[in-house]
Specification:
single chain, 8-stranded antiparallel β-barrel, 3-stranded mixed β-sheet, about 10% helix, mainly beta
Length: about 425
């Protein structure tokens, strides 16, 4: 009872200060939302605002002493398009135009439990003429409804622990939709393994030998053609360089014999008229001399080829195909270098133009596969067996040599 009397005895100004106290506040240069959060952290003042909007507004450093909350908020919002409105015990920060004619939000709390007020009077029993008369007091039920002007600030914090379960489905390539019909071009590179066939045998010199060993062959090319379903036809242009080692060994022997020398000559005349010549001879021994010739060189033959080809897909899938291919080409000699054997010492000489066949015809056939790697592009590895018709050198030159090659080709096909 004494506490209640003390509360009523306090002056109204003291009661007002409990709801609108004077505060001291300072903040460094930051965004407006950080300043309001610090205000709440320092004095537990509930301020409702949009963090996404106020985080874009930056304020200078601010400091004050013994000011009301309204004054502090006015200072912080000065120069911005925002204002505040106090609703209940909360301060709502909104743009100025949104605070005009905004009715106070009214939330009607559900009615509190009924309070039964019963007058403190017990039942009275009055005996009268042997009868009992009961007198009841009226029970009044008072409903109390409380109304508040309230802005509710709700913060949601969600924390989710997630465990992902991934099921391995094997190696998979996300192939794109592909175009594999129409006009196309295919640039390519080729590496070859060559072998030589000697129709008439190698020209073996006396006391010597000649050997040719394939060394290296490579080429580049460009194919162009048209593909319709499984069948492809076209033309190609390519450059090919064939290199092989030329080895020659030759041994020449000289001497190991006697040379007669005439020291003097005389004659005798017979009576019959015949003359007999007499010679005084001497002999000199010439010792045996052995000369060995050994020579090595790398011969090079360069060709420019023009040809025709056709292929057929015997396996055709959405993103893969396998095919058989055949073609023919005419090879034109465009360059040469190296050495060939000769009949006189040192038994070798540079290759001459009249010794090399200027044109030849080649046939080839093989297999290949194609992997589709883009909308219009596929990677195409192939292997061919190539046969040369005719010798690399002219028929009148005794160096008869035909060439056979395994071609390993890698191309990139583009469809228009």
């Amino acid at each position: 009872m004494a506490l209640l009397v003390f509360c009523f005895a306090l002056p109204k100004s003291s009661q007002a200060q409990s709801f609108n106290p004077l505060i001291s506040f300072s903040v460094e240069s930051c965004t407006l939302d950080k300043a309001l959060e610090k205000l709440f952290a320092d004095y537990e003042l509930n301020v409702a605002f949009s963090k996404a909007e106020l985080s874009k507004i930056r304020i200078e450093s601010y400091s004050c002493s013994y000011k009301s909350v309204e004054e502090v908020l006015s200072d912080l919002l000065k120069g911005t398009d925002y204002g505040f409105k106090k609703i209940g015990k909360q301060y709502v920060i909104k743009k100025n135009q949104q605070l005009v004619n905004v009715p106070e939000a009214t939330i009607t709390q559900p009615a509190e439990p009924h309070v039964e007020v019963v007058k403190p009077k017990t039942d009275s029993v009055v005996p009268k003429a042997g009868e009992v008369i009961r007198i009841f007091d009226t029970v009044q039920v008072i409903k109390t409804v409380m109304r508040y002007d309230t802005v509710v600030k709700i913060q949601h914090e969600m924390k989710t622990d997630t465990v992902y379960t991934v099921k391995y489905q094997g190696w998979h390539i996300p192939w794109p939709k592909f175009r594999d019909n129409g006009w196309f071009i295919t640039p390519s590179v080729t590496m070859s393994s060559a072998s030589f066939k000697h129709e008439g045998g190698m020209p073996e010199p006396e006391n010597g030998s000649i050997d040719v060993t394939p060394s290296f062959a490579y080429g580049v090319g460009l194919d162009g053609g048209y593909k319709n379903n499984r069948l492809s036809v076209g033309m190609n242009l390519s450059y090919r360089s064939v290199r092989y080692r030329f080895l020659l060994e030759q041994t020449v022997f000289d001497g190991d014999y006697y040379v007669n020398d005439t020291l003097d000559t005389y004659y005798t005349v017979h009576p019959t008229g015949d003359t007999t010549y007499q010679y005084i001879l001497d002999s000199t021994y010439v010792p045996l001399t052995t000369t060995q010739y050994a020579y090595r060189d790398v011969n090079r033959l360069d060709y420019l080829s023009v040809g025709l080809f056709a292929s057929f897909d015997f396996v055709k899938m959405e993103h893969f195909r396998a095919f058989a291919k055949a073609g023919v080409s005419v090879d034109f000699l465009v360059g040469y270098a190296g050495s060939l054997n000769a009949t006189a010492a040192p038994f070798h000489a540079p290759i001459a133009k009249e010794q090399v066949e200027p044109t030849r015809i080649s046939y080839y056939g093989g297999l290949g596969v194609a992997f589709k790697v883009a909308h219009r592009i596929e990677l195409v590895p192939e292997v061919h067996y190539r046969l040369t018709n005719g010798s690399l050198y002219r028929a009148d030159f005794p160096f008869d040599m035909k060439m056979r090659m395994w071609d390993f080709r890698l191309g990139l096909t583009y469809y228009f």
